[in-house]
Write a structure and sequence with these properties.
Layout lengths: L1 H11 L9 E2 L1 H18 L9 H15 L3 E2 H15 L6 E2 L2 H6 L9 E6 L2 E7 L9 E5 L4 H8 L13 H6 L8 H9 L7 E7 L5 E7 L3 H5 L15 E6 L3 E6 L11 H14 L4 E5 L8 H11 L7 E6 L12 E2 L13 E3 L5 E3 L18 E6 L5 H13 L3 E4 L10 E9 L6 E11 L15 E2 L4 H6 L3 H9 L18 H4 L20
Parallel strand pairs: 10-11, 11-16, 16-17, 17-20
Antiparallel strand pairs: 1-2, 3-19, 4-5, 5-6, 6-7, 7-8, 9-10, 12-15, 12-19, 13-18, 14-15, 18-19
Length: about 525
C-alpha cells in the first residue's frame, strides 16, 4: 500500500510544475543516479524508518518518470518527495542557485502569513487590506486548503513518525525562505496569473467571498512578521522576565551559535546568577520555538538545568569509512577533513555500521556553578527538533523536570546530523543535504524510537485560544507551579522513563487521492 501511495504521489505531481526549464532524459537520470548512490553510501539513517524495498521502488518510479525528460522544478519536487521518505529532518533538497536567487525578486509569495489549526488556515498578519487577522482561507487558486496540505505533506522532511511537526513548516520555515506553501506552491499548480492569487475567504462574520490579491516578493514577505517570530542566532534568542518574587521565565528560541558565535556558558550565566542571588525557586523554560542548532549552546543550557552529572551521548555511528571517488567531487561541507576520512577514525559496529572514534570519548557533563536548583517546568512543542530534542531527551533521563505542551518533533534517541555533506547535482544544480553521522543518545532504550517526546502535561493550543490571544501552554505551566489560580493536572516529575506509555495519541492521517481530507495538522 505504501509503495503504491509513493508511486501515485509522484504521478499526481508530475504535470504540475510551472517553471519551464527542461532537462534531457540522460541529464536527469545522471543526477538521479548520483543522488541515490550518495544517499545509500553515506546516510546513516537511510533505511532507518522506511524499508529499503520501498525506497528502491520509489527510485525506480522516479527514473521511469524522468526517461521522457523532466523540468528542473519537477525534479526538485520529486526528489523532495523521495527524501521525505527517509524521514530525517536534516535531509532535504535545496533549490539550484539561480532558482534560489530568483526567489529574492519574484512575486510568488502570498501577501499574508497564517496559522493552521486542525487543517484549517487562518490569516495571522496581512499586507493586503482586503484580509484581516482571523479570517479563514478556504482555497488558493482553485484547490481547497485541504488539497494544498495533502500535496505539501510528503514534501516536508521530519524525523521518524513526527508528522505533527509538518504544520509549523507549512506555516513558516527558514529552510524554505518562508513556509512550505510559498516555497513549493508555485511549482505545484499552473497559476492563471503568476503574480496574483485567487482566494476563497470566510470572513469574521461568517460571510463567504472570493478575492484576488497581488503576490509579493521575499522582502515584503519578510516584513510580515506575524505571531511566529524566529531568532536566527543564539546571541539574540533569549527572553527573560521575573514572575513575582519567587519565579522566572526564560525562553531560548534557537541554539544556532555558528553565525555570530558567543560563549554560551558566559551568555547564559547572568540570568542564572541573578535567579540564584534573588533566591528564586521556580523556573519556566520555554523552548517551543527552538528547532536546534549548535551543540555548545544546548549543552550549556542543559548544564544550567541539571543537579547531577548527565551523559549526553554514548557515541556516533556512520555508514561508511571512505567516500567513493565518483561521489567526492560533488560533495562539500564545512569541515574539509570530512571529505577525506581516515580508516582509523572508525571501528566496526553492529549491522554494518561503524562507530566514529576520532573525537574524545563521551563523558558526563556536570551542573554549572549557578545551575538552577528549584522546580523546573519546560515548555515543549512540535517545532522542537535536532539538538533541542537531544537536550530534552537528556533532561528526561535526568528526571525531576516536568514537560508541558505538545509532543516534540525530532528524534529523541538521536538524529542523523553533525557533519552534513552538501551534494551538488551537476546537471540540475539541485543541492541535497546528506548527514554523515547518527548520534546515539544515552539512555535511548527508554525513549521513543520513531516518535517525539511526549509532555507530562499535554496542552493543545487551539484556534479559540489563538483568537483570544491566550498562551494556554504558559497558563498551564504557571498553574503547575502555583503561580496563578486554576486547576492543573501536573503529574509527577518524570523519573521512571516509561515514555512509551505516556505518548499522546494523534489522529491518523487520511490520504484519499480522490477526495483528500485535512491531515490532522495542528
Amino acid at each position: 500500500m505504501l509503495r503504491q501511495l509513493v508511486t501515485t504521489a509522484i504521478l499526481v505531481l508530475s504535470a504540475t510544475a510551472i517553471l519551464a526549464d527542461e532537462m534531457s532524459s540522460s541529464a536527469a537520470l545522471s543526477d538521479i543516479a548520483l543522488a541515490r548512490k550518495t544517499l545509500e553510501t553515506i546516510h546513516p539513517g537511510y533505511d532507518r524508518y522506511t524499508d529499503k524495498a520501498v525506497l528502491d521502488a520509489t527510485w525506480a518510479a522516479l527514473e521511469q518518470f524522468a526517461r521522457g525528460g523532466i523540468e528542473r522544478a519537477e525534479l526538485y519536487v520529486q526528489l523532495s518527495i523521495l527524501l521525505g521518505l527517509i524521514r530525517c529532518d536534516h535531509t532535504l533538497a535545496e533549490l539550484p542557485a539561480d532558482m534560489a536567487k530568483a526567489r529574492d525578486t519574484e512575486r510568488v509569495y502570498l501577501p499574508f502569513r497564517f496559522k493552521l489549526f486542525d487543517g484549517r488556515m487562518y490569516v495571522d498578519t496581512s499586507g493586503d487590506a482586503t484580509l484581516v487577522r482571523g479570517e479563514e482561507i478556504l482555497s488558493i487558486d482553485g484547490p481547497p486548503v485541504s488539497r494544498w496540505l495533502f500535496l505539501l505533506e510528503p514534501l516536508i522532511p521530519v524525523d521518524g513518525d513526527t508528522n505533527h511537526a509538518k504544520a509549523g513548516v507549512i506555516e513558516y520555515s527558514t529552510e524554505f525562505m518562508g513556509g512550505a506553501l510559498d516555497h513549493f506552491g508555485p511549482m505545484l499548480t499552473p497559476l492563471v496569473s503568476r503574480n496574483r492569487a485567487r482566494l476563497a475567504v470566510r470572513g469574521l462574520d461568517g460571510e463567504l467571498r472570493t478575492i484576488v490579491v497581488d503576490r509579493i516578493d521575499y522582502v515584503a514577505y519578510q516584513a510580515l512578521t506575524g505571531e511566529k517570530r524566529y531568532s536566527r542566532n543564539f546571541r539574540d534568542a533569549i527572553r527573560f522576565e521575573t514572575l513575582g518574587d519567587d519565579a522566572a521565565y526564560l525562553a531560548v528560541d534557537t541554539f544556532v551559535n555558528y553565525r555570530v558565535p558567543v560563549d554560551p556558558v558566559v551568555h547564559l550565566e547572568p540570568y542564572f546568577k541573578a535567579m540564584r542571588g534573588e533566591g528564586r525557586t521556580k523556573l519556566i523554560v520555554d523552548v517551543r520555538k527552538n528547532g536546534g542548532g549548535s551543540n555548545d549552546a544546548q549543552t550549556a543550557l542543559l548544564r544550567y538545568l541539571i543537579n547531577k552529572p548527565v551523559l549526553q551521548t554514548d557515541g556516533l555511528l556512520t555508514r561508511f569509512t571512505s567516500i567513493p571517488e565518483s561521489i567526492r567531487p560533488h560533495l562539500g561541507t564545512w569541515d574539509a577533513a570530512a571529505l577525506n576520512p581516515k580508516p582509523d577514525w572508525f571501528e566496526p559496529a553492529d549491522d554494518g555500521f561503524y562507530r566514529f572514534v576520532a573525537g574524545p570519548a563521551p563523558v558526563p557533563v556536570d551542573p554549572l556553578p549557578y545551575a538552577f536548583d528549584g522546580d523546573i517546568v519546560v515548555l515543549i512543542g512540535s517545532g522542537n527538533a535536532s539538538g533541542v530534542t537531544h537536550m530534552l531527551a537528556n533532561l528526561a533521563t535526568h528526571g525531576g523536570i516536568r514537560f508541558v505542551g505538545e509532543k516534540t518533533g525530532g528524534a529523541p534517541t538521536g538524529a542523523t546530523a553533525n557533519v552534513i555533506y552538501f551534494l551538488t547535482l551537476p546537471e540540475s544544480g539541485i543541492v541535497i543535504r546528506v548527514p554523515a553521522q547518527r548520534t546515539l543518545i544515552a539512555g535511548r532504550d527508554a525513549l521513543p524510537e520513531r516518535d517525539g517526546l511526549p509532555p507530562d502535561v499535554a496542552v493543545e493550543q487551539t484556534a479559540e485560544h489563538w483568537f483570544a490571544g491566550r498562551d494556554r501552554t504558559l497558563e498551564v505551566a504557571k498553574q503547575a507551579l502555583g503561580l496563578q489560580p486554576g486547576p492543573a493536572s501536573v503529574g509527577e516529575p518524570r523519573s521512571d522513563l516509561d515514555l512509551a506509555v505516556q505518548r499522546s495519541m494523534y489522529r491518523a492521517l487520511v490520504r484519499d487521492l480522490d477526495e483528500p481530507q485535512p491531515l490532522g495538522f495542528r
